[in-house]
Amino acid sequence: TGDINAFSPAAVLLYDVQKVLGSWLKDLLLEHQARGKVSHYVPSLYLEEAAPDWIGAQSPPSALWSDTAVRLPWKLYQQYGDEAILSQQYWSMKAFVDQVEPLLDKFGLWTTGWQYGDWLDPDAPPSRPGFGKTDRYMVANAFFTKVCAELAGAAEVLGHADDAARYGDLAARMRENFRTAYMNAPGKLTMETTAGYAI
Questions:
Q1: For residue 88, how far is the Cα from the chain centroid?
Q2: pLDDT tens per residue, the chain (199 residues)?
Q3: Is there a contact between 107 and 177 (Cβ–Cβ < 8 Å)?
Q4: pTM (2 d.p.)
Q5: Could you give the CA distance from residue 33 to residue 26 in angstroms, rounded to a whole number?
Q6: Following DSSP, what letter does each residue of the chain receive, concatenated?
Q7: Burial class (CB in 10 A: 0-12, 13-18, 19+), 25
Q8: Rounded Cα distance, 53 and 171, in Å
C-alpha cells in the first residue's frame, strides 16, 4: 500500500491506470471490511506473516501506507473526474480516518503505533530503514492532516455535507496541532531535516 501511495501521483500522469487501480481498490475495500484495517499489503492473506522480524510489532493503521485508502481514490478522482471511485471507496475512506481519530493523544496528535516515517533515509541504519532523522510521528501527523482534508473534499463531491464539515474541521484542528507541535516560528521546524521541510 505504501508503494502505490507514493507512486500514484506519477502513475496517473504517465498511464491510464483508472481501471487497474480501481480494481485493486475494490480488493483493499473488501479486506478492510473483512479485517477491520487497511493492511500494509493488499492482498495480505499470507504476506504479513512473511514480513521481516524488525517489522514484527507493526500493525496498521499507519501513515503513507494504510492511508492509501483515502489518498488513492482522491488522486484517481482528481485525475479522471469520475465520482464513482469515491462512491465505491467512501466506506473505507471514512473507516480509516475514523480508526485513527480516537488514537490522537491529548494534544490532538497521532503519537502511537508503528509508523514508517521517512522510509529509507540514507542516514538510517541499514537494518532499520524506518529510523531516519525525521521524527516518524511528525510525518504521520502531516499526512493525517492531508488525508482528513482529502476525505472532506470527497464528502463534498458526493454531497455528504455533514461529513464534509466534520472532516474539514478535523483537518483544520490537525493543521493547528501540527504547527504547535512541530514549528517554533513561521516556516521554521523544530527538527531541521530535508524531509521535514519537504513535507
A1: 18
A2: 999 999 999 999 999 999 999 999 999 999 999 889 998 888 876 555 555 554 444 567 999 999 999 999 999 999 999 999 999 999 999 999 999 999 999 999 999 988 988 888 888 888 888 788 899 999 999 999 999 999 999 999 999 999 999 999 999 999 999 999 999 888 888 888 888 988 8
A3: yes
A4: 0.91
A5: 11
A6: -HHHHHHHHHHHHHS--HHHHHHHHHHHHHHHHHHSS--SSSS-TTGGGGS-GGGTT--S--TTTTTHHHHHHHHHHHHH--HHHHHHHHHHHHHHHHHHGGG--TTS----S----STT-TTS-TT-TT--SS-HHHHHHHHHHHHHHHHHHHHHHTT-HHHHHHHHHHHHHHHHHHHHHHEEETTEESS--HHHHH-
A7: buried
A8: 35
User: Among 152, 145, 133, 147, which Cα is nearest to 195's?
Assistant: 133
